[in-house]
Amino acid sequence: MNRIKLALAAAVGALTLFMLPALAVAQEFVKVSGKATEEVPAGPFVGIAYGFIWVAILAYVLYVARGVARVRGDMDELRRKLDADKR
Fold first, then answer.
1. SS3 annotation, the chain
2. CA distances from 18 to 7, 15, 21, 23, 54 (A)
3. Closest C-alpha among 48, 68, 67 to residue 56
């Protein structure tokens, strides 16, 4: 059990030593000059994603419509066969 505690303490110590320079850099102050603006370069990607979703929905609706048309055709054929057998 002592070895596990010692290994854990060594890992935490090593991690702390590696993170100290990163923490120092993260705490530096950089003065902003001019008006602060929000720049989101993801606009085209959002448009492409919405376009892809709409194309996928349209493809699904067409696929389902084709299946419904095929089933209706099969039902009409079955009705014709049943009407022919009744006569």
1. CHHHHHHHHHHHHHHHHHHHHHHHHHCCCCCCCCCCCCCCCCHHHHHHHHHHHHHHHHHHHHHHHHHHHHHHHHHHHHHHHHHHHHC
2. 17, 5, 7, 9, 47
3. 48
- Whole-prediction pTM: 0.48
- What is the percentage of the chain residues whose pLDDT exceeds 70? 82
Residue 18 CA to its chain's centroid (Å): 33
Span 49-64, mean pLDDT? 96
Residue spans per domain, the chain: 2-28+40-86
> Could you give the maximum distance between any two Cα atoms of the chain, in Å?
94
What confidence score (pLDDT) does residue 5 get?
77
Whether residue 65 is predicted with pLDDT greater than 90 in this model: the reply is yes
* pLDDT over threshold 90, residue 79: yes
